[in-house]
Structure formats: C-alpha cells, structure tokens
Amino acid sequence: MEWMMAVAVGVLFTVGVYLILSKTLLRIVLGTSLLTHGVHLLLLTMAGLKKGAAPVLGGKADAYVDPLPQALILTSIVISFGVTAFFFVLAYRAYQAHGTDEMDNIREEEQ
Amino acid sequence: MNNLLVMPVLIPLCTAVILMFLKEKVLLQRRISAFSGILNLVLACVLVTRIHEEGIQTLQMGGWTPPYGIVFVGDMFAALLVLTASVVSLGILLYSFTSIGAEREKFFYYTFFHFLLVGVYGSFLTGDIFNLFVFFEVMLISSYALISLGGTRLQLRETSKYLLINIVSSTLFVAAVAYLYAAVGTLNMAHLSQRIHEAGQGGVLNVIAVLFLTVFALKAGLFLFFWLPGSYSAPPAAVRALFGALLTKVGLYAIIRTFTLIFAEDPDVTNGWIAWMAAATMILGALGAVAYNDIPRILNYNVIVSVGFVAFGLSAGTPDALDGAVFYLLHDMLGKALMFILGGLLIAAAGTDRLERMGGLIQRYPLLGWSFFALALALAGIPPFSGFPGKVLIIRGGLDAGMLTLSLIGLGSSLLVLYSLIKVFRLAFWGNAPGTEPPKVKLKGGTAVAAGFLVLVILMGLGAERVNTYVSQAGDVLGSPKLYIEAVLKE
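Output (structure tokens, whole complex):
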C-alpha cells in the first residue's frame, strides 16, 4: 500500500510545484492547495499504514492503529483550508486592484 | 503542574475574541487591548521570577503525562522571551493608538494584533513540535491579515508573495514533522531529544535537521531572507515594528530550540551549516542596509543582520556564546521595536520615506533626532546600551570556539550597521530640507513610547550584570538539554 501513497504524494507535489511556478495567481493558489494535500498524505503514510482496530479503550483487538497522525492531519487540513480561503480572497482583491491576475503585470505596474 | 504557563496564550486569545464584537467602539478596543497587554506583562514577570526560583515549569494539558498528550514548558529562555515580547508588544500597542488610524482600528487591527501574540507566546512556550507548527500558523495567519490590512496595491502584491513563501515553508514544516515522526516516533521535544540521544544522529536525522533548518530559516530570515525587505516594507510602521521585533525572532527561537535540544548530537555538522548561513546573512544584510536609500528597506536589512548575528552565537555553541545569543535576542527585540517606531516617526515627520528628500529635521525634532542617534549606537553594540554585553559574549564565545573569520564578519557587520543608521541620521537630520518643508506634525504619543524603549535599552545595558543572572540560567538549559528533558519527563 505504501508505494501507492508514495506515488500519489509524488504526483501531488509535482503538480503543485508546477502550478506554483506558473504565472497566474489562480493557478498558484491551486498549486499551494495541491501541495498541502500532498503533504497531508505524506503525514499519514509516514506513520505507516497499519491495519488494526480503532484505538478505543476497552476494545479487544490484536492490533490498533496509531491515532496521532490522524489528529495531526485534521489540524493541518483545517489550517490549510483557512489559508487557502484567505489566499483566494487575497488573489481576488489583487485581481480587482490591479485589473489582472498575471504576476508579471502586477509587478510591472508598481515600478 | 502550573496553570500560569497557559495564561500568556489565553489572555490575548480571549482579548481578541472580545474585541471582535466591539468593531465600532474604537476607544473601548484600545482600553481593553492596553489592559490585556499590561496583564500579560505582569504575568510574564511572575513567570520569570517563579522559574528563577523553582526551575523549569511544565504544564500537562488534561493531565496526560508526557510523552503522551500536549505539554507546555516554561524554561528561562522561553520565559524571558515571553517577558520581552510582552514589553515590546505593549509598547507597539501604545504606539499604534496614535499612528495606525481609525480605519484600520475599525477593521479588527487589535483583534489580529492579539491573535498574533497568541501565536508568538504559544511558540515560545510549547514543548511539542507539532504544536509549534500550529502556533506558527496562528501567528502567520494573523500576520497575513495585518500586512494586507488597508488593501493598497503595494500591500496586496507584497502579501501575495509573503503568503506564498510562508505556505510553501509551512508545507515543508509539516513534511519535516512527518519524517521526524517516522524516524523517531514521537513529537514531544524532550522525548525527541532523549530518543535521538539514545539512537545517535545519523544521516537520516541530519536530512530531517536540514529540512527543519530550511523551514525555520525561511521564517527567521536567516540566509533565506529574499522575501523579507519587500514584504516588511508594505504595512504601516506599527505593524512593521511588530513584525521586525517578534516574527523573525520566533523563527530564531525555533532554530535555537531545535538545534540545542533535538538535533544536538552532531554539533559539528549542524553548527557548521548554521555558521555558514549566519556568515552569509550578516554580509548580505549589511550590504543591503548600506545600499538602499529608503528608510523601510534600510531598517529591514538591519533586522536581517541581527538574525545572522544571533545565529552565529548559536553556531559557536560555547556557554558564553549561548548566553550571548539569548542576551542579544532580548536586546534585539527591544532595539528593533524602537528602531521601527523611530523610523515610523521619522517618516511621519518628513512626509516621505526617501532619504534624499529629507534633511534638517534636527531643528524641529531634536528629541527624535538624538533618540535615533542613541539607537544607532545601541544597535551597533556600543556601551552603555544593551547591544554591548550580548555582542561581547557572542564574540568571545566565537573566538573561544576558534571561529575567527565569523567573529570578524560579525564585528564588520556591526560597523556597517552603525554606518547605515548614521547615514540615515546624517541625511535626515542634518543639512537643509530640499524644497518646501512639510508641516510640523505632532509626534507626542510615539515619542513617549520611543523614549520608554530607549530607557529600557539603556537600563538593560547598565544592569547587564543583573540581567545576566537570568540570561545565564537560560543559557544553561540551552547548553545541557538534560535539564530540559528531566524537567519534562520526570515521573
């Protein structure tokens, strides 16, 4: 299983970086979003994809999964949602103020 | 167990939430903010004295003992930083009353201000590396809001850059945490330190250490500072002071904490990287400070130089150098807040931020002028100001560790810092104003705050002996991680 996750993480990172390096602000926002998703999968995979019961006290199972990565991912996802939302609003405001969302034009106008 | 530890986080959090509901009542917002700032200052003093008397304090959230659960750890280093941060933030708060403008105040300036403080205090006090990430994010999200508040084109552009850089570095932070958890199987800093000590720090852990160093260096402006001068120029002076005094220092705190506590087993390698980055930072920062002619940029490059200097203290790693790094960090928080406030007053007085359009201000603003001169001496590390003891300790530590080149670079960069600020002093305050003189503006509130900071800077320099008893207690913990581990993991 882990190798599939590794491939998925790799693809998400590649696409994310590609989009971040492109010129329009909207693509950059999408790129950061994909990048953070990649890193969330990485976080989940890094602890090892164990097969086991939910870690509930009193349950009787041979193996339990590690609950920590899921707690970490939850926190991280919430943060990335918030930041992405902020970035979208910011990109929209920048688009309104500059009349374009091409990064090159945004830069030229100020000089 | 000590509930006092969580108060520096809770008080600004509650304040921020209350202030959200008082959008239109600017005066009430100010009063509540000031009250909360003073309360925090008092609590920080109590915290420092208690740690001074009783040693490292820990708080286990919900009674889950480490390594399970979340801990807050207050050692002397963290407590001193919390104390200085509360002094600095209170001063900047008072300065914002007169400078920030009703428009921003109505759009939740104080709310974001306090949320930023939540992140800063939390980063100092947490004893868990994932919570460090969370508090970093709290701090960063507030800083995005503060930087873009006002919505001018310049601000929007600089915020997009700043935001993008920080999203990428936060992503790397999570990746680094993931790798660390895979390699060591814990996230509690004390437990991490213990396990790495047992297992030794091999190739894999060194790679993870580099990843952490990259992340924190991006936030601290250590070597990877290319985003800093532009982004920190966009917001108004009060916000700039807040960022220059606190944000980069949190990054530095994280570097010092991780590399003295967690990745401390292979100091030859890790300190080597930090030393090179520190050297490059000091040289490039000093060159930038000398090269530019607009005040925000000169001041921003000065922030970068001092980041490099503290990192040099860390990389030398001797007890003297670590004490010096702590001392200089404390001085620098005060000094940089003072620097940006004076810079803001100067820009307000001259009506422009370009040096070539200034001149002759000394006749109309003598107090401001001489404060600026004193600041230049303080930042360059001339006694009796507070920069001196820290600088002496760091340089002595560097020489003890046999880092002659770096010590020379440190001294040379101090000279360039002095030159860059004296250049501002000379061009802005002496000579004649080119063209028409701008109308005289009232700077009363701001000058009072600046004078207060200046007194603190002098007192800290004169009372260096007394400050040093606290600072060396902080340095002891940095020098021997065992103290920290025992305090956190005790039965």
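The interface with chain A takes residues 130, 133-134, 137, 141, 144-145, 148, 151-154, 156-157, 159-160, 163-164, 167-168, 170-171, 174-175, 177-179, 181-182, 187 of chain B (CB under 8 Å).
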